[in-house]
């Protein structure tokens, strides 16, 4: 996989010609230039995170003003361009033209359904508007009062990638002229990191059956059903799982009157079907309800999120059931009591933990589906409990997703074929909408369908406090910052770094006190809400000696965390030959890697010397970690874990080439390399080199020397560990490293030459402004690089447990 080092906006092709000239502004300069940036984080998808280097086609016109409650045109359009350029994206729509709506307009009762010319009874209710949206337009579906004897139109799109129309913007076109509603093919083939997706011809005609007759093409279902025969043809699967992300706005009028509220709960309206092309009501359908009330203050105006499946059973009714998992299973939204959602405050759960739509505002939803299996034939209602459905949400002003639903053992049956192959936006109401007395709308834009997770959109309104503070700094400027962890001095010692996840808007911290094996504690800071969270189940966990050092690693693709712990040499320790693994989607409790058990059957060195997770270690999207086990008394060894196969490869090394223990580590997305080591070779002040980690075409990864850094790169004793510091990707320059002294005021930067795999270090650029830590009465300190924000964040606490947070913007 190549990397798009900067996402340039020069002449980018769009429908009808050129997007617009913007003097080739690059996103990194926006982040570092507080005067020019409007949104609060755009580099996380480009220079700081690997993305494909293929050209970007943006289905949007350049708005010149803020539109609706969406955001700023230039930044919002740039952000959308970055998200749709991500690996795994199959197709997307931002409804830049009427054709993107009309190509998939489907009217019940109108011949065989396809309605590109709006000939159906209520076809005009589904249309494109330019008075709202994020980048200047959106799709709107209105519902008028009265009983509809013929149901309202829907937007019904096969999940397949499709070819462009030959003339999609001419008035009254159908067939091959319309295609996917755009003048460019869906670029699925260029986005896939593994396998291939067929880009299919789609030619909707007036009253035609192109959607209903699509058949089992582009299906997303379990791999065992690929190529099997069905009553409707051979099933042709495009994947085993998908992610669907879109922006959505619900009219406040939806719940403003008693008549409109009469269509609620199980008989209420629907907003989304995940289903098939030949029918919406299917065994495998998963439907999102428009509106459901609950027992809360002003509950008749609260629009809670809810889903059901297979015609009627609520998803929350699947095992282990309502009493255990509540009305929004697996939610991470609530923090009241046990955090479980109950719409009627039953079973000891609380309605305060239930996520609801903020009416009249643009929110972002992302669905994840992974198909399961059945023991019997299609239509036999014999499902196994192995289908996954998860939903993530970002409210206005949030630039990180919160999981609001997660079930990984749904007993979902299948009929006709073995999965989903259609997205179906609707405002279906039971009984023809009887009782509705006031018109209301639903609106959608920025619809993205992908085979991989999709980062959340940027918030183009008020940035959160952490970014605001960074943005306000001049180069070399400093500022205090108020959020503080609950940690005291001792647990914050012997740490090289804490970690920023720019995709999910989270800062992670792991702490561990000396001589307290069960003191391992994890907490995280949510940038969007300006809060620290310390999950109760992740405090004082494990029974392992050792410290954090540089053994705390992150997978930027999934958000997963990995922590190496001391004790591999033996003893009554917890999983001492496995690396602890915190999965972002199911974080409590921590699991372990390799999943199969011990990584090695023989004796092991006791202390890790750095751990790196590399998302492309064995090829694009085929990641794993490397862990360096160093100890002064025995020979060194490297352990390579391949996530996709759960296999560990051990490579014995001569001596301790990268140091003994305490070593630092990081993944450098800009160059797709990892770095670790740089600690002492004798347990003292004798310095070892840094190691460079590179993929090797699927074989055992390459590890070579980068030479000695200017000072030790470790997390060792601040009192007796000599001169050392912590190594980071520079927060304002993704192509540069920064080494910040812990026991010295010195700091250094480094650049990398990919041709000969060498680092070039600057001289001492100090002093840096953070505390120098050399005594028991000094300030224990750990430091984080806020990737793309342009500044470093240090947390410091002294022996009296006085806590200080400081931000610093180093020269880029």
Class derived from helix and strand content: mainly beta
Q: What is the C-alpha radius of gyration, as a whole number of Å? A: 27 Å
Q: Please identify the oligomeric state.
A: single chain
Q: Largest sheet at a glance?
A: 8 strands, antiparallel
Tell me the total number of β-strands: 49
Point out poorly predicted stretches. Answer: 1-74, 296-300
How far the N terminus sits from the C terminus, by CA atoms, comes to 26 Å
Percent range of helical residues: under 10%
Give the averaged pLDDT, no decimals. 83
What percentage of the residues does DSSP assign to strands (E)?
25-35%
Shape: elongated
Number of discrete helical segments? 7
Q: How would you characterize the overall build of this protein?
A:
With 812 residues, the protein is mostly beta strands. The protein has seven helices and 49 strands. The longest helix is centred in the first third of the chain and has 12 residues, at 73-84. The chain is elongated, with a radius of gyration of 27 Å. The protein starts with 12 loop residues before the first strand and ends with a strand.
How is the secondary structure organized here?
Layout: E1 13-14, E2 17-18, H1 27-32, H2 73-84, E3 89-93, H3 98-102, E4 105-106, E5 126-129, E6 138-143, E7 154-158, E8 161-162, H4 188-191, E9 199-200, E10 217-220, E11 229-230, E12 233-234, E13 236-239, E14 241-250, H5 258-261, E15 270-275, E16 286-289, E17 303-304, E18 307-309, H6 322-325, E19 356-357, E20 363-370, E21 387-394, E22 402-410, E23 422-425, E24 440-450, H7 465-472, E25 478-480, E26 499-501, E27 506-511, E28 521-526, E29 531-533, E30 552-554, E31 561-563, E32 579-583, E33 586-593, E34 607-614, E35 624-631, E36 634-642, E37 647-652, E38 664-668, E39 673-677, E40 690-694, E41 702-707, E42 712-713, E43 724-729, E44 736-741, E45 747-753, E46 758-761, E47 780-786, E48 791-797, E49 803-808
Parallel strand pairs: 8-9, 10-13, 42-43
Antiparallel strand pairs: 1-2, 3-24, 4-7, 5-6, 6-24, 7-23, 11-12, 14-20, 14-24, 15-16, 15-23, 16-18, 17-19, 20-21, 21-22, 25-49, 26-27, 27-28, 28-29, 30-31, 31-32, 32-33, 34-35, 35-36, 36-37, 38-39, 39-40, 40-41, 43-44, 44-45, 45-46, 47-48, 48-49
